[in-house]
Amino acid sequence: MKALQFSATGNLAALRLVDTATPVPAAGEVRVQIKAAGLNPSDVKNVLGRFPYTTLPRIPGRDFAGVVVEGPQALLGQEVWGTGRNLGFFADGSHAEYLTVSAKGVAPKPAQLSFAQAASLGVPYTTAWDALQRSGVGQGTRLLVIGANGAVGSAALALGKILGAQVLGAVRKADQVQVLRAQGFEAIALGEPQDLGAQVNAVFKGGADVIFDTTGFWLSAAVAGLAPFGRIAIIAAPVDGQVQLPALALYRKGGSVVGINSLLYNCEQCAVMLEQFGRFFDEGSLPLPTGLREVALADGIRSYEEVNSGSADKIIFVF
């Protein structure tokens, strides 16, 4: 089968398009014929060596959608989607024509999603879902999403709305504010960090119950915008990993910080999440992904380079 594979890390030059043996599922596994696979920034960082626990050689790729062609009889021919920490790190991933994974590590693909659409959602939507669930977002929760125009941020807005939250998006540019408002979300333009508390309180009197910072730069500033007993969820940090936190203000509010890391969840755990929110696509309450750029696997190395150079395109490998 055709696959992208790397045998060393540190440079994208290590990534190759190769012919390799088609994987054979072990007991309790399925073989999925990949129809579409998402390219995430973490896939690029993996080849660059940012995850020292990755075993080599390795086929990268976490998100996929396809058809079960071998495994338990009940799953044969089923259209499925999946994601998980092991793919591309401890086991071969989805940037290949076939993939083997636990039979419990795939979820039925929502009928309203194409293969490419399904493959675009795994990491961003499971990350957002985990953040909202673990920070207690529900009916009436005042939720601020910082970086609401990104993949995870936009997923958090959509999922928060479904969960009944009062949703506010925060973005850098005025035109991004207008885009969010056109989508039906209240939005603010981020200014100076010291102004964030006043901006939030102008919309949510008394502060936000949950602030989800998807950027890694607003944790300290977010404390001023937090309501009593509020939670700040984070999925990133500055390059050096250090943040000066106003601990006095945080504990006086009874606030807490919730770290969100999608690499804590294996395929089986992610499959549970995919089933939990996947039904909302078929019910018509979650928007279908748009603006995807479908690319053949033969152009995969160039796509990795584009993402590494800062491209914001959501690239999907199609087979």
From TrEMBL:
The residue ranges of the Enoyl reductase (ER) domain are 10-317
Which InterPro entries does this chain map to? ADH-like_C, ADH-like_N, ER, GroES-like_sf, NAD(P)-bd_dom_sf, Zinc-ADH_QOR/CCCR
The protein's name in its UniProt record: Zinc-binding alcohol dehydrogenase family protein
Which Gene3D superfamilies does the record associate with it? Medium-chain alcohol dehydrogenases, catalytic domain (3.90.180.10), NAD(P)-binding Rossmann-like Domain (3.40.50.720)
Keyword annotations from UniProtKB, A to Z? NADP
Which molecular function GO terms apply here?
oxidoreductase activity
Give the species: Pseudomonas lactucae
